[in-house]
Amino acid sequence: MKHPVVEAVERGDLDALVRLVDGLAVARDWPAIVDLRDRCRHALERGLQLWPAAEYAEYRLALDAPPAFAGPVVTETAGRFALGPLWEVAASTHTWSELGPHLPSGPTRALVAHERVMRGEDLRGDAAIDRSVLEIPLRLEAWEPSYPVATFRSSQAEFPPPAPVDLRPSHPEAGVAVDDADGVEALVSLALPWAEQSNGSVAAVAVRGDGGAAMAALAGGPVAAAEISGSEAMAWMAWTAASGGAYGRRRGAPLGRFAAWWALAMLGDLDWPAPSAELAAACDRLVWHRWEPVGASHGWSASLAVADPQQDLAWALYAVDDAREET
């Protein structure tokens, strides 16, 4: 009798291969999952499209296997169609001291480290982590929030947003648009995959005036808004930039944190890389709001407004996305 994996590969039976991965994971037979992955990859040479089973095998290795098996699958090319980047998946269930020695060299190794930082580790003392991959500290700064992080499971993942904000109706007047390409670009980049890869809409504007003037310039009518703290705004920006929206590829929490730092530096008129103390001061000086056009209803919403009273400048980001209805 043929081995079940060999038989499933020869039949090109994706469903059977996925079930086999699940069973082997329950049995904690990690070498067998590696063998299944390799057989599915080699089957491509015979025209069998078994790469989904191979990717699922690598996802389960990254998620559930001991570090010696999880680390080697964390590469730049792996996990293209997984529920999240494999470096984020592996870092969600393994500490840095466990996983670090088993990771291949390259940018993904640093991304694992930054994911562990977002889960509370302080890795400033590890000189082997490449600081050039993300020019942000290898610890959470005192002025930063506790960022939302992903939870991965065998067949699903959760990407919780920051705490909801109670928005109240308002009727601000639109401000006069001004040219601030850096600030507008930094805000748009937070949610660009929502528009380019998913079903969303993204826009930003800079105006003279306060946050309300910026919101009105984008909304073209009444808005619902509430002032939030700079720490809350950082959490919203990082969550937005980590996500791909309803259908786009997830970028991962560390890249979201980096995008939030970058946006703060641009809005605060700071050179990059900006010192943490200067960013903290800018975050505290700026006035932040969560907002939506009145009556809006979206599956993903991360619209923000920010004002710099010292310069009489304000910016607004409109970022929404929806899952398409099943037919």
Tell me what you see in this structure.
With 327 residues, this protein is of the alpha+beta class. The protein starts with a helix and ends in a 6-residue tail after the last strand. The protein is 43% helix and 13% strand. It has helices at 4-11, 14-27, 30-43, 51-64, 67-70, 86-93, 96-99, 107-118, 181-190, 192-196, 211-219, 230-242, 253-267, 276-285; strands at residues 151-152, 157-158, 168-170, 201-208, 223-228, 287-293, 300-301, 304-308, 313-321.
Helix vs. strand class: alpha+beta
> What is the average per-residue confidence, as pLDDT, rounded to a whole number?
94
SSE succession? HHHHHHHHEEEHHEHEHHHEEEE
Please state roughly what percent of the residues sit in beta strands, choosing from under 5%, 5-15%, 15-25%, 25-35%, 35-45% or over 45%.
Answer: 5-15%
List keywords for this structure.
7-stranded antiparallel β-sheet, 2 domains, alpha+beta, single chain, 13% strand, two-stranded antiparallel sheet, 327 residues
Could you give a short description of this structure?
This protein is of the alpha+beta class. It has helices spanning 4-11, 14-27, 30-43, 51-64, 67-70, 86-93, 96-99, 107-118, 181-190, 192-196, 211-219, 230-242, 253-267, 276-285; strands at 151-152, 157-158, 168-170, 201-208, 223-228, 287-293, 300-301, 304-308, 313-321.
